[in-house]
Write a structure and sequence with these properties.
Number of strands: 3
Strand order of the largest sheet: 1-2-3
Radius of gyration: 15 Å
Order of helices and strands: EEEHH
Length: 94
Amino acid sequence: MVKIMFDHQATDSNHALLNWEYRTVPETCFHPDCGTYISYGIQAYQCCGGHCQLISAVHDISTKQSFVEQLTILFTKQQLSPLHLLEVITDFLP
């Protein structure tokens, strides 16, 4: 059984370290005013013992791939809890 704790020091019942990994995901989107476009979202994974499970995702964040990639690097490095993912993304948007 895994105990989910939402911080970077979380462990499972076998005391293996849990961590968060964020990934940039390209998405094909459509809007009636501009047609089809490529946008980038972020997926949050809970990783433990070499296995990662998708926990949450935020879609259509930006058409600027480098911006979203910088966010995923920052979120992984800082071990942002997925509970705060949408709120923090919103804080970074102009």
